Fold this sequence. Notes:
By secondary structure, the chain is an alpha+beta fold. Helix 1 runs parallel beside helix 15. The longest helix has 24 residues, at 625-648. The N and C termini lie far apart (63 Å).
Amino acid sequence: MKNPYGGRLASALLLLFFCLTPLSFRAAAAQSNDLSWKLEGVADAVVAYGDGFLALAQGSVWACRAGEREPGLVLAANAGAAIDDIFAGGAGSVLALTVTSATYDIYRIDVEAAALSLMWSIPKQDAPVEVMRRILWQDGQIVIEYQNDSIRKSDLLFFDTATEKTMSRYGCDVSMLAPCEGRTLLGVRMRYEDGANLIVFYDMDTGQTTPVCELGVLPEAICFEPEKRQIVAFVAPNASLFSASGEAGAQVYLPVAHEAWMGRQCAVNTSRLFALSDGTSLLAARLEARQDTKALQITRYNAEGEETKRFRLSHPEIPVQTVNMGYQLTPAMISQLIRGNDTATDIYMVRTFETGYCELLEKGFCYDLTDQEEIYNRVACMPPALSQALMRGGRLLGVPVEMEFDSWAMLACSYETLDELGIALEEIPTNLLDLLDKAAQWYQDGVLDGVRLFNSDDQAFALTWFALNNYAQYASAECKALDYDTPLFRSLMEKCDRLCALITRQGKLSDAAPYLFASVTPKAMLFDQDGGQSAFLPITPQAGMPPRYPVYVTVAVLNPLSQNKEQALVYLRSLIKNLPAETRLYFWPEQAGEEERAQYQEQRQIAVEEIARLQGALDGGALDIAGRNEIQLQLADALRWLEELETRQRWEVSPDAVSAYLSIKDGVFVPGSIVSDMIDEAMGDAVRQYAAGEMSSAALVEAIVRKAGLIRLERGE
């Protein structure tokens, strides 16, 4: 069900946590024209009512009226019944669903009187399965949609309100149902031959579907507007209108800023006002609305980023949309698009490790941001190892978005395995040459009998791949040509060869066997909550080298052909100004300080007061045994919640994280794309052949040396 929690305090506190814990962005004031409302909790359901809407949030029903900035409370949570859902009924009425152990009870909501009246009880044993997606009213029937084993299909329960009889239909090739007209529902189904997402009409009598139109991606919400017989399908950030025969109409922009993995709730009222849930906000827009401003287009290699969602909250007046081109969006593709006069894209998101990234900056494919004082001054304060990845010849050509550590600079040691083997952490060398020798000695002495050296089902591959990457990253950190034809690398590979032979002699171990090492990124050290920092070991190729920490930066670059540069610059200024605390620590360590989560103090005070109340109830002596047991359970839940707040929910950036990052910041660097050219899929295949015994170590070394030489030759090094 939508509310799977019972009446115990643990459930209430968990709901309170999700309600109060801030997301990575905060809602601003209502949009201009008062078509946005802030709710006290996530909008679990939305129903058209009068000139506005009713919304269900954390069990309470709120009235959101057009022209009124604040929602009005209609029914408080647990006021007469624990409401799990609300939905439109016949003749403009609004119905509420509550769930008991035996029935699904349907109430009519009297909004003016703020009261509920029981209408029907549906026996729970008639439900096909336990997890309900949605409940709706259509032509005198209540339809309950359940999720079966497939997220693309549904089981349906039909309840005839006149006869109070039920009928179930299983495995329907339709989901995301919405009321439509007559004996028809609106829904979505996949065409499995090509994965297309179809909006369909579903015949309640026959179970047959009639395709209406096709969408490239699964919509987040759908609904039907009866006055003009239009289908509204929302795919962030636009609501697209379709006629009942499938012709595409206008698009209406809504400044959504929150993820919607489980879909969104939506409704259209009699004024053709479209409302859409967006986290704890309810957004609305007129279906006749027209955009006066061209939408700012962000073209990127993955799904929409948090920076764009933050921007929509702070600048709802600037429409912004994301185009996800997947991993085909390489620097070479960006260059090709700009050469082809791409004026649709305003900002490209690109990654520093991609082949051709440096050339993209150097050859005029990025708008010069040097005269943007606010942006330039911020970048100039970054450590040189990071800022130089955004600049060429003194010109600023990109804005940092986020940073990701590479996993080839450190190893994590299993404390449990170390204890079992009697190995002190201090015994483990922090350079590869000595570490490979030490591991070989452990194998020869039987220390590692029954233990995997790496947390991998192919230890020989993991070992060799780590050595290859670690050497490449360190060479890049030193700004050296990627030369594998060196005594150091050949020595590393000889030691790998010896160790791989010992691993092979040990025989294959099960995945459940304990392991000694796992690859890890420094982020686990910086933001570890369990005090395990000392288990993380920076690894260098040989002794005497300072530790290095490779990072990849996502960079926003402005298309020089953009027709929307002023708004794009607003976006870039907002982006760099509103980076989250963790990212600010990475990019500006000297300016960083510990940062408490917003509302932590408020959450803590609520927990402390609840603990005091429960303790007072126990000390009062007026409870029977059953009552005391229930209060003690609630008190234990509250104490656990307070501990969770203190240990895991207090800090956005903790003092320990600041100290840990300051201790490694001088070793952080951005690798050149030559590393990704070298350590590619083809090289991975060669190492797998070696690990499987299909290639000698000498042949592998020569293949590596030859490839590195060809790359250097192509680059003129």
